[in-house]
Amino acid sequence: MFDFVRKHTKIMMVLMFLLIIPAFVLVGLDGYNRMRDDGATVAKVASRSITQAQWDAAHKNEVDRLRASMPGLDAKMLESPQARYETLERLVREVVLEEALADAHLHISDARLAQELQKIPAIAALRKPDGQLDMERYSQLVASQGLTPDGFEARMRQDISVRQVQGGLTGSAFAPKGVADMALNAFFEHRDVQIARFKPSDFAEKITLTDADIDAFYKANSAMFQAPETVDVEYLVLDLDAVKKSITVAEADVRTYFEQNTATLDAKEERRASHILINAPKDMKAAERQKAREVAQQLLVKVLEKPDTFAATATKFSQDTGSAAKGGDLEFFGRGAMVKPFEDAVFAMRKGEISKLVESDFGYHIIKLTDIRTPPKATFESVRSKLEDEIKTQQAQRKFAEVAETFSNGAYEQPEALKPLAQRLKLDIQTASGLQRTPQPGASGVLANPKLLAAIFGPDALDKKHNTEALETASNQLVTARVTAHTPARTLPLADVRAQVKARLLLSRSTEMAKAQGASSLAAWKASPDSASFKETVTVSRDRGQAITGPLLDALMGADAQTLPAWVGVDLGAQGYSVARINKVLPREAPAANVAVQERMQFAQWLASAEAQAYLEVLKSRFKVQIKVPRPSTALAAGTNSTETSP
Asked: Is residue 58 part of a domain?
């Protein structure tokens, strides 16, 4: 079918034109938007389906929001399977709350909506002198988010309603002081314990493995010894850097750009100053602030009389701990680096001059200007390469959409090779081998993108060796790939993995022996406590760093200690088994008053969060939530889990 389409593109374009125009008349643009949004269902809430397209759009919005608020955030974290799944869970939660609101017939009045809109600074700034909202600018503002005023206000009503429901839950959570203190004291109490560990490594020498044992284990656990399915690919990346390579800038254009931006290209004047600071923050009481000013005034008189003593005076009396040890020296700085009163004073002074008292939010400053550095003016030759790169970047940003369309069409129209497209756009064909269906640990770049990997392992790319569609893997970045070789998953021959099989079997049996010995010792010691063999006593708790963590700590702190000694046996998986005896329960040391207040507030927040989560779980059950995508595994590889260590 698709081969026919590709070979008869012009005929199909005519047919599509004849079919689409009448269809628009019948169903309208909105109908087509709904059709476009259809896709595989990834979750269901009551009768509503959440599609792959909606999930992708929600995750893109979340990534854009996080990148805008935290520019230095690692992009790989945002595109991990776990991050994408969290977006899906958040989307499900929003839909669940929307259904609950509709079920409760909760409505936000126009007056409440107007009140909330006025709290948004960007909207409040659109008011005219007469108090009326500038509707034209308001429409432009919401249009920048891809919405109409009606659509924006509908979303706002929804958000207000959700906040109202959540606020009603969290705001009504109540933790009396006595209850909070009792729970916190119990949670943070200390326990004196003795621990005996039964480690698999202690039993390994007691185990003898035969060839028959190894063969049987290999056959029974062949899935452990499989080589994963892999592909080799070639791929093209279109991004701003690639578009820039195709752009040539005339020298005359660079020179014109230089002349138009001379003022911004010149390096700015910098000044070096020293200061003496007497702390007097804005919230200091007036009387104390006046005393600080008097101290600063006395120091000012002293350094004005003997300017050469400025550095020594700063070292002795300045309350700026960062510069006092250096005689008050602040090194060179430009405009914008200091608070405004300080900056204004420094840039109005002559070299060697000492200022009058300068008051800032930090207190009172005495400033000495020690040097002025005025860089030479920028010349055309010194900034030529930088300006040429800036011009290319600007032109590439304007040209990218046009080239992106050519890239997308080329990947589709000539599906059996990337070379024609690479030659047309002057792109380098890149290669990679051994790719798997999921990003591997440490993977980065476009080949760690889950959407691209899903397309590479799709039937069209995998079976027919066709190019993938052009996929957006980052802002201003498109990728298309083609499979050149495919190796299905297979069980590795025993001869190749014999050492691994032996090691796994040895670990399995020694772990079984450790657990059996641990469980047996626990039973014997409980029956005859004097026969127990323990090391020294250690104190454990949840409120301090210690060597004992993870499941063992949870078991020790969660055990019923009303009758002492109390015994605990803990299966630690591949780490064996631990037996512990709890000998004493020690009350928690009373925290400082301010710490206790903070802890009670935190406890109330935990309680509110738990109630909100419980309410959400009730709603999810009521609306029969189904998430059809499996949760990504976060389990560590066998043998790497480290939940507790010896004290």
From this structure: no
